[in-house]
Design goal:
Shape: globular
Number of helices: 3
Largest sheet: 4 strands, mixed
Order of helices and strands: HEEEHEH
Helix content: 25-40%
Distance between the termini: 22 Å
Strand content: 15-25%
Strand order of the largest sheet: 1-2-4-3
Radius of gyration: 13 Å
Structural class: alpha+beta
Length: 110
């Protein structure tokens, strides 16, 4: 689980992210990156959005969320500071190794 300072609430921040953020696509993810509302020196904050279309069973959705958040948590220093990031996985992300997920996320967030 990510620290509280690195978590982003979608209930309060989703509209702002979609209006002010840049959307980037890859074969594994859709990533929306916006400047943080807390300033440039703030920690990077992440939110995950896994749809029921991607993984109909809640077990699969939560497993994918845990996998992605663990990869992000272990590599927090490689993501840009002062950014709010919304990660939306695609169908291909269910069957790829961790290293590929990390490289794809780093490329999209920078």
């Amino acid at each position: 689980m990510l620290n509280k300072q690195n978590r982003l609430s979608l209930r309060t921040e989703r509209v702002r992210l979609e209006k002010t953020g840049q959307t980037r696509h890859s074969s594994l993810f859709i990533v929306i990156v916006a400047p943080s509302s807390q300033g440039e020196a703030a920690f990077p904050r992440f939110a995950l959005l896994v749809s029921k279309k991607l993984a109909p069973l809640s077990v699969e959705r939560h497993r994918l969320k845990r996998l992605i958040t663990e990869i992000i948590r272990l590599n927090l220093n490689e993501f840009p500071q002062g950014k709010d990031i919304l990660v939306i996985p695609k169908k291909n992300s269910l069957s790829v190794p961790r290293e590929q997920i990390l490289t794809d996320l780093k490329q999209l967030c920078s």
